[in-house]
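Continuing the batch. This is chain 6 of the set; chains 1 through 5 are on the previous pages. Same settings as before, nothing changed between runs. Recording input and output for traceability.
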Amino acid sequence: MKLIDRYGRKINYLRLSVTDRCNMRCQYCMPAHGVDKITHDDVLSYEDLYRISKAAVAIGIEKIRVTGGEPLVRKGIVPFLERLSSISGLKQLVLTTNGLMLDEMALDLKNAGVKHLNVSLDSLNAKTFAEITRGANLFKVLAGLAAAERVGLPIKINVVTMRGVNDHEIEQFAELTRDKSLAVRFIEYMPSLKKPGWQKLSVSGNEVLERLGQKYSLEAVDRQELAGPACEYRIPGAKGTIGVITPMTGHFCSSCNRIRVTSTGQARSCLFSDMGMNLKSVLASEDPLALQGALRHVVELKPDMHGVSADRDNHDAFAMSNIGG
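Output for chain 6:
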């Protein structure tokens, strides 16, 4: 079954947030004071999250990415992932994490059916990393990456590139792909929090490629089925790949294939759009067809493109951890 929106895009990807809580405080993701606390009753149960996932797969979703906050901080996450991976028709279960708990959980995640990990890592310098994350330990994350590599979990490293903060590390990150089968993706800074002067932090995907092109002769890599929005390249002879994700300067909205559901049951069709619906009342009906219908409605609400660019931010400010990134 195919799920097609009104602009002819095939929607086959669900980003499912299981918590808004996180054990980091990244500057671009949440305010310094953190996010407003929500009660236990506000967060969907694993049973409700499973019902949403099953309904989504029934109407055409083929890939589910579990996100947060930090998904690994939620108690019981591994059995939940194992249950998700058993949904008939789901082709790919993946997870985004900050890596702080990977050292002790990597093998459990693989055994639960997770096919690959996206790890947020914005600096390879301990001091810079601590500044970006407001205090997190880089070496703990690196130990987690090593553990994931040992158990055979494919890894993508997400780098939010910020001018004057970590953009001097672009080449260093690229070098990681020479000897390891890593996918390093450079992501343009997105002004979710709408900090004054955020434009000064922006480094375009084209600039990243131009800088890398001065040192390497990059080869384009064909996109695979269920691939994300990155344009991918490879240093000749390298084991891994390099990608750029350009939500600000090179909108990929025309090929966007995703919807998202927050940990509180808000289904959204676009990260930068308030269009969506609260699934809690539908979940209360315990009617799987009604839930499928609600998700189809969210797809119908999907805009042709978001309204945010390098010089425009006409959205309401939000903490990325509340939405699921």
